[in-house]
Every structure is written in structure tokens, then in C-alpha cells.
Design brief:
Blueprint (H helix, E strand, L loop, with lengths): L3 E4 L2 E4 L7 E2 L1 H9 L12 H5 L6 H10 L2 H6 L1 H14 L5 H22 L7 H5 L2 H20 L4 H16 L10 H6 L3 H9 L1 H19 L9 H8 L3 H30 L2 H9 L4 H5 L8 H13 L4 H4 L50 H12 L6 H19 L1 H7 L5 E2 L22 E2 H15 L7 H21 L7 H17 L1 H5 L4 H22 L3 H13 L1 H15 L6 H10 L1 H20 L7 H9 L21 H4 L1 H18 L8 H6 L5
Antiparallel strand pairs: 1-2, 2-3, 4-5
Helix pairs in contact: 3-6, 5-6, 6-9, 8-9, 8-11, 9-12, 9-33, 11-12, 11-14, 12-14, 12-17, 14-17, 14-19, 17-20, 19-22, 20-23, 22-23, 22-24, 23-26, 24-26, 24-27, 24-28, 26-27, 26-29, 27-31, 28-29
């Protein structure tokens, strides 16, 4: 018996003697792609069309093969199809609604593809016609809003969100997508908030809703008033903000889990056994193979929430009982019926202990801890462009947090102590820290740990100057808060001082190579001024008087690095080159550090000579320091506790435009045919009542 094959809308018999038969829906599409009105011969044409299972591939393929001129000839039929799709969204029968949503996706994508050519036709005119555009788009947005807010089918809501994501991302640069003007005028902001505030809707659609909101916020954000920015900045509903935080936490946690799984898999593999046998000489190369695709879309959503909405700051520290430690379930986690969109979407948006596995020591977690762990992973390897962008965005988010008064209050709160297990880059000269020995500390300690870790691990030929500057700025902003509020933080400050001194050493050792690409004196000045901050105000925020003594000990112990820095900047400041002025600023900033070195070094040498000691112990040096403070003269330096606040529009606009472009391309790529598959949707609507 001849077998029947189905391909591209054709029903073929295996026998070559008969012509291929076309599906009825394909024949109907063919009628639309003529210059005649398809409803002339069949008045029920449009009614029947939306009862047919959509053939997305065929419909988009038909649009693809037409050139601009041919498409203009059938413009009336395309307009008619678009309008009938919108009408069908108001139908009672869900099958019609599903088919209309799918058809709209194909139409929007297909027509936009043609716009990439030189045909020069207008997208809006091609889809709906200028004369009817305003009313049609208003009706479309109202229908989508109603479907998203209704109590009905979750599958329909999912398809609505996918249509909206399709609409937003058809162009790489979303600000050039003129259709979005109608999405601005006919806002769906409240519908998105409703999804995020409802546990059931959030579980099913939270991820897509958050990504959609992040993209809409970035539409022409620098050129005009974007209503989504305005509305997001004033949201104060706790359930909604917490819902958004839960979705973001879930997505970031999923990334952390995937990375941890790959890391464990990597460590138990053959290569690990080999490195154990021959030593750790290959450990850096081995680690590079641990790669999980970053999720810039969800990170952008977190940034917009933190940057625009002061109320969201409270969500960062919100402890979630459902994130607490519990046993892992034996039953598998159910998958959502359709693949969520974005770069690396989570398997589900349910926030539960099962899906947010925490370290055995951690009893509770919050969004900030999850974000810090995520940051510690993506900031390890900045050679990859996506990770570099992710790392930069992580530091921008931390910059916004470090500037916020309320955020600083809970970061430094002694009553909010957590054990935060950050990922550390494997390095030959240090042992892997034992996770179980981590102390419970205020969250600011984890932020400082992350900054120290970055400083120590990225001194490389391809020097990420921009990330280092942001890193030092974050530390400075945290110190400014501690000085202002006299917060005495019990932190291992020596690790920070050591990292900063080693950074200065690296800058000097690689002066020629780095100066060819960067103004290293900007960074050197920031590092020196961090030491000036400790020297001038350390007695107000260092935990004990002995901590202040240890600061002086480190400066004296590592004085050769400061001497070398002084020699380098003196040499360049006396020349007539381009670095004269920035080098001179560093000379001025070094005045107190040099005063400390020049004051105490002779005293230490004298003490050693009198007591016939060739090499003094740390305690002996500290004794000399404590007994000679009185005769030390330091200059008061102004502006050490002041900083320029973060400004996106003036300094980061280019970065965010490129980032949003990359996210738009990724989201569109994930909107492949399989994500719009009807099989699961039609199961839900197997009968038409």
C-alpha cells in the first residue's frame, strides 16, 4: 500500500504517477497570495481559515519568496488577513484564537523579513494599511490584554506573550521597530504585572513576562518618554515586585545549578584524574571547558528593576522560606509545555526548594545571594564576549546597589548574616577554599569578596580595564557609606589591601603594553585614593585600632611597590607626553603614603639596629608603628569620600543599545517553529463547543 508523506504542506503519495495533494489550509494560503479577494468566491473563507491548523512554515515560506513589488500587489489581501486575525481573537472558540495568534506571528515575521531588502515599503502599511493602522493595532493590543488578564487558558496566555515577543524582536534594534509605537500607546503593562503578582500565572509565564518587560522598557528610552519606564519606576505593590524578584531568582539559580552540575561532572571525569596525577599545571585550561550559556535577558530585567524602582531594593534582601534547605525530590520536575524564551531560560518558573537547590550550609537565601553567585561565575572568564557583557552588567547592577542608602543598610546589617559560597577561579598558587568553613557574615562581605576575587584573577594581557574601574568604584562607594554611617565592619581587610597592592604592581610591570591601550593612571589613582580613604578615615570604620595598625604595616611591608609607582609617575610627569597630567595627579595622591613610609622606615631600621635584629617580626614592626604615630604628619586630602553617581544615559547608552540588540536576536532565535508548535495547544482545545 502506498505510504503518504507530509512535507511543506504537500500530501505526497509514494507513487510518482499522481500529482502531490495540498492541505486545504495551504490551498487557502495560495488564494490569499493572489490579487483576487479570496472571499469573493467563498463568503465563508475567513471563517473557515481559522478552523484550519496553521502551517507556519508554508506561510512564512510564501512571504519569503516574494520580492517587495510582488508583496505590494497582494497588500490588500495581507491587510485583510491581518484584520481578520484580530477579529478572530475576540471569538469564543479557542481554536480560532490559537490559529489567529499563530498566523499573526507568521505574518509579522514574514513581512519584517522583506523589509531587510531594499524594497523600502512601510511595515505598518504592508500589514494593516495606514488608514486602519491606529484602530487595528488598538484592537489587537486590547485583545491581547484581555486574553492575558482573563481566567481562561494558560496556553493562550503563553501564545499571547510569544506573539508580543515576536512583535518586539522582529528587528535587531528594537528602537527602529515602528510597530512598538502602538504597544507604547496601548499599554499592556498592567497585564504583565498581573502575571507576576499571581503565583499560578507567574509559574507558567513569569519568565516570558519579565523578558518582555525588560525589552519594552528599552524601546527608544533615550529619545522619548517611554510609558513602561515611567510605570515600572513607581510600582509599589509588594506581591508584584516579589513576583518579579522570584522569577529573576529562579532563572539565575537555574544558571548557577547548571554550572555547578557541569563543574562536578568535570571534576569527576577522566581529565580530573589526569590532573591529579600530574599536578595542577593544566587546571586553568581545564576550567575553560566548563561553559554554560549566560542569560543577559534576565540580567537586564534585574538591572532595570534595581535602577528604576527604589521599592525593588527591598526585594533583593527578601528571604524566601520556599528557597530554604529541603531534601531533593525523587520525582522529576515537570517541564512547561512550550520552551520559554530568552538565552538560557529555566526549566520552570516555579520558585520552590526543589528548584532552588542551596548549599548544605545555607538555610535561607535571597535574590542578592543568588545574583552574587551568578556574578562570581560569569565574571571568571571575561574573554568570551557574552560573559564580558554579563560581567559588566553585573558590576553595573552592583554599582546601583552600592549607591543606594537602603541597600547599604541591609548589606551592612549585623542581624542579617549569610554564608555565601562564591565560585572561585582555580589558580595554581592557591588551594580551593573549603565551602563548609565559610562564616556567616553581613552581605557586604560577600560583595567585597567578589570584588577582591575579580581583582586577583584578571591581571592578564587582555586587561579588562573598564571592569577593574567599576570594581574599584564599588569598593569605594561601600567605604563611603561605612565612613558616613560609622559602620565598623569585621572583614579581612588585609585581603583587599594585598589585592590592591598587587594590582599596582601589575600595572607597573606591564606599563608599556597597557599604556598602548589604556590610561592606567586613572585606575592607579583610584587604588591610591582607596588607601588614602583608609589612612584618613579608617579610624571611623575599621573594626579595631589594631586593624588601623595593620593597614600601616601593609603599606610599610610593601613600600617597594609604592616607591616604584612614585618613580614611574615622576618620570612620566616630568616628560611632555600625553600622560603628564594624569601621572601628576597620582604623585599628589601618594603624598600621605610616602609620608608614612618615610616616617616609619627609619624608625624600624633604628629599632632593628638598637636591638641587633636582622629581620623584625610583624609584632615588632607594629610596636614601632604604635609608638611613633604622634610624630607622623599627614596632609588632609579633600573629596576622598565623594563620588560621581551612576548615570546610564550619559555613559552607558551605547553599551545598553548593543546589549538589547544581542538579547533581541537571541529571543527571536528562540522563537523557532517548535516553540510555536500547536500540538500541545490543540490537545487543550480538542473539541469546539
Amino acid at each position: 500500500m502506498a505510504q503518504t508523506e507530509k512535507k511543506g504542506g504537500l500530501l505526497r503519495k509514494s507513487s510518482a504517477s499522481k500529482k502531490p495533494l495540498k492541505e486545504k489550509v495551504v490551498l487557502m494560503y495560495d488564494e490569499i497570495f493572489t490579487t483576487e479577494d479570496p472571499s469573493k468566491c467563498n463568503p465563508r473563507f475567513w471563517e473557515e481559515l481559522f478552523l484550519m491548523k496553521v502551517n507556519l512554515e508554508y506561510l512564512e515560506g510564501k512571504l519569503e519568496v516574494l520580492d517587495g513589488e510582488e508583496l505590494m500587489k497582494i497588500k490588500d489581501n495581507i491587510n485583510c488577513l491581518f484584520q481578520h486575525c484580530i477579529q478572530a481573537l475576540g471569538e469564543e472558540h479557542p481554536i480560532r484564537v490559537v490559529n489567529a495568534l499563530q498566523t499573526l506571528c507568521a505574518l509579522i515575521r514574514g513581512v519584517h523579513q522583506k523589509n531587510k531588502s531594499t524594497s523600502g515599503f512601510d511595515i505598518i502599511n504592508m500589514l494593516v494599511g495606514f488608514d486602519k493602522a491606529e484602530l487595528c493595532m488598538k484592537n489587537l493590543m486590547e485583545s491581547l490584554d484581555s486574553l492575558l488578564c482573563a481566567e481562561g487558558s494558560e496556553s493562550l496566555k503563553s501564545l499571547c506573550l510569544k506573539l508580543l515577543l515576536c512583535l518586539v524582536t522582529v528587528t535587531d534594534n528594537i528602537s527602529q521597530n515602528t510597530i512598538l509605537e502602538y504597544v507604547m500607546i496601548n499599554s499592556i503593562f498592567e497585564a504583565i504585572l498581573q502575571i507576576l503578582s499571581s503565583p499560578l500565572s507567574r509559574r507558567e509565564h513569569g519568565y516570558d513576562a519579565v523578558v518582555l518587560l525588560a525589552l519594552l522598557v528599552n524601546y527608544r528610552k533615550y529619545e522619548s518618554v517611554n510609558p513602561y519606564i515611567v510605570k515600572l519606576s513607581i510600582v509599589d505593590d509588594e506581591a508584584t515586585l516579589n513576583g518579579m524578584g522570584l522569577v529573576i531568582a529562579q532563572a539565575l539559580s537555574e544558571y548557577n545549578r547548571q554550572y555547578k552540575d557541569k563543574e562536578e561532572e568535570h571534576q569527576t571525569g577522566f581529565f580530573s584524574a589526569l590532573t591529579n596525577m600530574v599536578g595542577s599545571m593544566f587546571i586553568a585550561d581545564a576550567d575553560e571547558k566548563i561553559s554554560v550559556q549566560t542569560n543577559e535577558a534576565i540580567l537586564l530585567a534585574l538591572y532595570e528593576a534595581v535602577h528604576l524602582n527604589r521599592n525593588f531594593i527591598t526585594v533583593l534582601a527578601q528571604s524566601h522560606p520556599e528557597m530554604g534547605l529541603m531534601t531533593t525530590p525523587t520525582s522529576p520536575i515537570p517541564m512547561t509545555p512550550v520552551t520559554p524564551l530568552g538565552t538560557t531560560p529555566p526549566s520552570s518558573d516555579v520558585i520552590s526548594s526543589a528548584e532552588l537547590p542551596l548549599d548544605a550550609d545555607v538555610q535561607t537565601s535571597n535574590l542578592l545571594i543568588t545574583f552574587l553567585k551568578y556574578s562570581s561565575i560569569v565574571m571568571q572568564d571575561t574573554k568570551d564576549e557574552h560573559r564580558l557583557h554579563s560581567g559588566k552588567l553585573c558590576l553595573i547592577i552592583l554599582t546601583c546597589i552600592a549607591e543606594d542608602q537602603y541597600a547599604n543598610a541591609f548589606l551592612h546589617d549585623d542581624n542579617m548574616n549569610f554564608r555565601v559560597n562564591l565560585h572561585r577561579m582555580p589558580m595554581r598558587h592557591r588551594k580551593k577554599a573549603a565551602d563548609k568553613n565559610l562564616p556567616c557574615r553581613p552581605l557586604v562581605c560577600a560583595v567585597l569578596d567578589l570584588m577582591v576575587e575579580f581583582i586577583v584573577t584578571h591581571m592578564m594581557k587582555e586587561f579588562p580595564m573598564d571592569l577593574y574601574v567599576r570594581c574599584i568604584q564599588i569598593v569605594h562607594k561601600l567605604l563611603c557609606y561605612q565612613k558616613k554611617c560609622r559602620v565598623r565592619l569585621h572583614y579581612t581587610w588585609r585581603e583587599l589591601w594585598s589585592a590592591l597592592i598587587n594590582l599596582l604592581k601589575f600595572l607597573m610591570s606591564n606599563e608599556t603594553v597597557l599604556l598602548a591601550k589604556h590610561n592606567i593612571f586613572t585606575l592607579a589613582l583610584m587604588v591610591v585614593n582607596l588607601f588614602n580613604m583608609f589612612i584618613t578615615y579608617g579610624d571611623t570604620f575599621l573594626p579595631t585600632p589594631s586593624s588601623y595598625d595593620e593597614l600601616y604595616y601593609e603599606i610599610i611591608r610593601m613600600h617597594q611597590n609604592f616607591d616604584n609607582l612614585y618613580s614611574m609617575v615622576l618620570r612620566l610627569s616630568t616628560s611632555s607626553g600625553q600622560w603628564k597630567e594624569p601621572a601628576s595627579k597620582v604623585i599628589h595622591a601618594l603624598v600621605n603614603i610616602r609620608a608614612i613610609i618615610n616616617h616609619f622606615n627609619p624608625k624600624i631600621e633604628s629599632y632593628a639596629a638598637v636591638n641587633h635584629i636582622s629581620q623584625l617580626s610583624e609584632d615588632q614592626v607594629l610596636e614601632v608603628v604604635r609608638s611613633n604615630y604622634d610624630t607622623l604628619t599627614l596632609k588632609l586630602q579633600d573629596g576622598l569620600d565623594q563620588y560621581e553617581r551612576y548615570s546610564e544615559q550619559h555613559k552607558e547608552a551605547t553599551f545598553f543599545k548593543e546589549l538589547v540588540r544581542s538579547i533581541s536576536i537571541n529571543v527571536r532565535k528562540n522563537l523557532a517553529f517548535n516553540t510555536l508548535s500547536q500540538e500541545l495547544l490543540l490537545k487543550e482545545f480538542s473539541t469546539i463547543s
